[in-house]
Design goal:
Layout lengths: L2 E3 L3 H5 L46 E6 L10 E7 L7 E11 L1 H8 L13 E9 L11 E5 L7 E5 L3 E3 L6 H21 L13 E4 L5 H12 L3 E6 L2 H10 L3 E4 L5 H8 L5 E6 L6 H7 E9 L21 E3 L10 H16 L5 E8 L3 H9 L6 E5 L1
Parallel strand pairs: 9-10, 9-12, 10-11, 12-13, 13-14, 15-16
Antiparallel strand pairs: 1-15, 2-3, 4-5, 4-7, 4-16, 5-6, 6-8
Helix pairs in contact: 3-4, 3-8, 6-7
The protein binds NADP nicotinamide-adenine-dinucleotide phosphate.
Pfam families: ADH_N, ADH_zinc_N
Organism: Phialemonium atrogriseum
InterPro entries: ADH-like_C, ADH-like_N, ER, GroES-like_sf, NAD(P)-bd_dom_sf, QOR-like
Length: about 375
Amino acid sequence: MSLRVVPTISRFRACRNNPISRPHLKIASARTSSYTVALHPTPHRAAPHPTPTMAPIPKTMSGIVIDEPGGVEALKWKTDIPVPELKEGDVLIKNEFIGVNYIDTYFRTGLYKAPLPLITGREAAGTVVAAHPSVTDFKEGDRVTYLDHHAYAQLTAVAASKVLRLPDGLASDLAAASMLQGLTALTLIREAAGIGSNLGVSEGPWALVHAAAGGVGSQLVQMLAARGVKVIGTAGSADKCELARKLGAKWVVNSRDGDLVGRVKEITSGNGVDVIFDGVGKATFDSDLEMVARKGTVVMFGNASGPVPPVDLLKLGAKNIKLMRPTLFNYLVTREELETNTNELFDLLLSGKVTVDVHKVYPLKEVGQAHSDLEGRKTTGKLLLKP
Ligand SMILES: NC(=O)c1ccc[n+]([C@@H]2O[C@H](COP(=O)([O-])OP(=O)(O)OC[C@H]3O[C@@H](n4cnc5c(N)ncnc54)[C@H](OP(=O)(O)O)[C@@H]3O)[C@@H](O)[C@H]2O)c1
C-alpha cells in the first residue's frame, strides 16, 4: 500500500494559526500556549484534536531491543522495558509514528557502534506526556517531533533542546516521515553542495541523484528540481524510475540496466554532472569519479551497498574533484541550526512544495520486515512504524 501524505494548501489554510506567518518552531513560554488544532492524517480532512487527558505513566513499555548486532532477528520485541527516567532537561514523548532510516540498519548490524543493549531509531513524532521539572519550554500534551536515539519504543526520553513543536496543520505521520530524510536533503544541497535557492531555471547545474525514488533521494530530487537544477535520477526498477521522474528528475536511468556512466555522459553531452549525491556507497563510488564533471563535487553520504573503502586521493586530481562525506547530525549541532533548517523544511511541506510518499506503515513489532524490505530494495519513499 502506498499512502500519499500531502498537506494541501486548503488543509493548511484551515488552520487557525497560519504557521508561515510566524516562527512556528521557536520555543518560548510554551507553558502558557494552548494545545490547539492539528489536522487528521487523512488528506483533505481537518479534525481538531481533543484536549488530551494524560494517562498515568506506566513503569514498563513495549519496544525493540538489540542485545547483539546481527540480521533482522537481532531486533527483539519486548514488552517489559523499563520506561526511561527523565534527567534534567528531558521530556518524555509518547511516540505516535517512528521513522525508519537506513542508519537504523547500520546500528542493527554493528557497522555503526552503540552501547548494548540498544533501543535504536533516530526519529519520531508524538506527544509530550511528562517533563522534568527543569523544563519550561514544553508541557504535557504538546505535539512534537525529534531527531535523537531510542525511538523504537512506545516512550522515549529526549533532551528538550532536541525537540521541536509541530506547527498546526502538520500531522505527526508526515513529521515522522520527513524529518531525518528531508533535513538530510536540505543540508546536503545547501551546505555540502553549496546550491542556493536562487538559480535561474534554465541555468542550473547538473546533478545526479542515486536511489532517486528512495527516502532521501525523493526529497533531494524535489528540492533540487525546485532550485532549477537539472536532475538525473537513478533507480533500480522501471516503477521507481517513473516515480523519480514524477518527482522532478527530467532524466532517469535504471541502475540495473548497465552502462550508467555512458548514459550520463550522453545526457550531459560528454561533460558529466556538476554534483553527485550518493547514498549507495561502495557499489557506485568508482563510477561517480567517472561521471562527475571537471571541478565537480561528489557528496558521498551513505552505505546502502556497503561503506566506500579507503580512497586514493590522487584520483581526485584528474578532474580537481571535491569529495565530501557529510552527516546530517553535524549540520544540526546548535539549536539555531536545528530550528532554522526545520522551519524551512516544515514550510516546504506545509506549502506542498515537497511531498512525502509513505511506502507503508508497519506495526513496531514487525520492524524486522521493514528492515528486510528496505535492505532488499523493495521500497520507495518513507517507511513508518506504529507503536
Ligand atoms: N549522511 C547522512 O547524514 C545520512 C542521512 C540520511 C540517510 N543517509 C544515507 O542515505 C542513504 C539512503 O537512505 P534512506 O533511508 O533514504 O534509504 P532508501 O534510499 O530509501 O533505500 C536505499 C536505496 O538504495 C538503493 N540501493 C542501491 N544499491 C543497493 C544495495 N546494494 N543495497 C541496498 N540498497 C541499494 C535502493 O534503491 P534502488 O533500488 O532504486 O537502487 C534502495 O531502495 C543510506 O545510505 C543512508 O545511510 C545518510
